């Protein structure tokens, strides 16, 4: 069986006196495309922060690539695109090349750096924008540049927190297709945080429904085929049938 690259056991998390996460247990295997869904305030970002080691683990165990998260040295293996990545204003004084270079974690010479940046931009079809100012691009284009920055050091796992906020629906579809390509062709394991269960089930291999605890972890197709009422229970929140044609 494939070894999990992330393993979470018995995780609990509180802010002040409020329990945000409880009895969290799941594995992420190499090559998976995981959709992490849940209503507002269900703890998705907190869980991601724990996986990234940004938030201190209070109770339970998390291992990343076989190491306890407290001792894990990332070295570019886990990469992250945050919720508000695509919000640069017009005129922001940085080129696409400069933004993507920030993602290079190893010491490289100038030529290697340029090649890495170009290749990462090519993966997201943005290589022709390399010398443009980041602020002059649309939200969807900026988001692609941030993906390039996140993959420029060849991560094994890429975590994206609501990356399609502010991106129009047509570009959202393109964006999910791009993620699917990165997963299948480059073999990058993905965790995609989203509100839009209907849109992501087509692309993800595993669905994780979170609302304080994990209510469902499994095949997205099996989840979609359940009656609405049962799905609402598993999602931990009322859910409408949202189907998207692809
Ligand atoms: N640093 C913090 N201190 C105190 N409470 C926090 C902190 N961060 C988050 N919370 C609270 O924890 C709960 C879960 O927040 P979190 O951001 O993890 O949820 P989420 O599922 O990502 O929400 P959303 O979908 O709205 O982004 C919320 O009630 C939030 O107000």
UniProtKB/TrEMBL annotation:
SUPFAM superfamilies: P-loop containing nucleoside triphosphate hydrolases
ATP-binding found in the keyword field: yes
UniProt cross-references to SMART domains, sorted A to Z: AAA
Residue ranges of coiled coil: none
GO molecular function annotations of the record: ATP binding; ATP hydrolysis activity
Matches recorded under Pfam families: ABC_tran
Keywords: ATP-binding, Nucleotide-binding, Transport
PANTHER family: METAL TRANSPORT SYSTEM ATP-BINDING PROTEIN TM_0124-RELATED (PTHR42734:SF17)
Protein name: Zinc transport system ATP-binding protein
Originating organism: Aquisalibacillus elongatus
